Amino acid sequence: MLIYLRILKESLFFAINALKNNKLRTFLSLLGVTIGIFSIIAILAAVDSLKKEIEGSLSSLDTSTMIVMRFSFSPTDIPQWKREQFPDVSYDEYQHLKRSLPQTAAATYTLNVKSEPVTYGGKQVQGVEIGAVTSEYYFIEALQLQEGRFFNEAESNSGAPVVVLGNEVAENLFGNPEAAMGNKVRLYGRKFAVIGVLEKEGNSMFSQSKDGAIFLPVNVTRRIYGDNNKQTFPQIILKPEDDVDHAAYIAQVEQSLRLYRGLKPDQVNNFFVNQLKGLTDFIDNITGQMNLFGLIISGFSLLVGGFGIANIMFVSVKERTNLIGIQKSLGAKNKFILLQFLFEAVILSIFGGLIGIFLVWIITLILSQFTGDFQFVLSFTNIMIGISVSGAIGLISGIIPAISASKLDPVEAIRTGM
């Protein structure tokens, strides 16, 4: 064990000397490793950060949640021209599914309508996102209220003129969420009583923050837009009970809706039951492909870096031929010489990799200052991957020069070096 520590110490000494005495040559040789490791770690960090942000954006919805609509979250074999002919899900179908699926924990019907200005007194907030939903949306999305309450089933069914404000909307109109309670805001040319204010969420790159939104009963917007408006993109969101088999539940949803729509056995479903778990799996697949593509591109930089390390090690062997001969004449074994140069190659390569990792870390800190709530993550796992890959590159690149050094004849080595 002591001899390996001694070899490591001497290799570190020789590596540091190589950096000091041949700065330009060493810089050019390590540049490829630095760029390669920088590329790999930057890609891994970017994809991890992207994945974390997407998962965070979807965290408010349970992955078992299912969305019934005329669009599919994932690729499908049904041609586009046929999908474009699919009818939207209706409010009546929502009520039918709610009645016919006893294992449903919660179900809601939503409409995606355009943003509208909301006014109170002399103040107005432009471009407010309108959440037209039924009452059980509150439980499915796990909304958090700072003040008041969400509208109940009776208010939802009757289309009562009540509204729940996002935190930012409440602050812009009333100065603070507490002052909003009991007042009435104007929307769609009519007045709505404020019955609740949501807690502040903050911005997200991949999901619409509810801070700038308001929620009102879906039957209010149904009266305004109608049930056959293709611009509203209606959805039925279902949350099955915890102990339900999802595949069997989806089959029940499909069978129930097929019967309601009168589809024949030979006809395909003219709707899609999208499961959020399928969406997260699809995201995992996409990010995995992004990682793979990035690693292949970065591999070319590492290949150049490997040749650079091999080049500097061949030069190092050439310069130290005389010293190798002296070491062998004093009893140094081939194994000692081999490990000495291998350790040096690995140390040089890891040094280049650490520079690349350091650059990624600096860039993540800078970018995080300009991207709001989106945070770039440089995980410990990615750091260890970078160090391991750079060490492997050094090992592979240094093996041939190390073998050639270990096989030198001591007499010829001393004579050549003189």
UniProtKB/TrEMBL annotation:
<feature type="transmembrane region" description="Helical">
    <location>
        <begin position="336"/>
        <end position="363"/>
    </location>
</feature>
<protein>
    <submittedName>
        <fullName>ABC transporter permease</fullName>
    </submittedName>
</protein>
<feature type="domain" description="ABC3 transporter permease C-terminal">
    <location>
        <begin position="296"/>
        <end position="410"/>
    </location>
</feature>
<dbReference type="Pfam" id="PF12704">
    <property type="entry name" value="MacB_PCD"/>
</dbReference>
<comment type="similarity">
    <text>Belongs to the ABC-4 integral membrane protein family.</text>
</comment>
<dbReference type="Pfam" id="PF02687">
    <property type="entry name" value="FtsX"/>
</dbReference>
<keyword id="KW-1003">Cell membrane</keyword>
<feature type="domain" description="MacB-like periplasmic core">
    <location>
        <begin position="26"/>
        <end position="255"/>
    </location>
</feature>
<keyword id="KW-0472">Membrane</keyword>
<dbReference type="InterPro" id="IPR050250">
    <property type="entry name" value="Macrolide_Exporter_MacB"/>
</dbReference>
<feature type="transmembrane region" description="Helical">
    <location>
        <begin position="292"/>
        <end position="315"/>
    </location>
</feature>
<keyword id="KW-0812">Transmembrane</keyword>
<feature type="transmembrane region" description="Helical">
    <location>
        <begin position="27"/>
        <end position="47"/>
    </location>
</feature>
<feature type="transmembrane region" description="Helical">
    <location>
        <begin position="383"/>
        <end position="405"/>
    </location>
</feature>
<dbReference type="InterPro" id="IPR025857">
    <property type="entry name" value="MacB_PCD"/>
</dbReference>
<keyword id="KW-1133">Transmembrane helix</keyword>
<dbReference type="InterPro" id="IPR003838">
    <property type="entry name" value="ABC3_permease_C"/>
</dbReference>
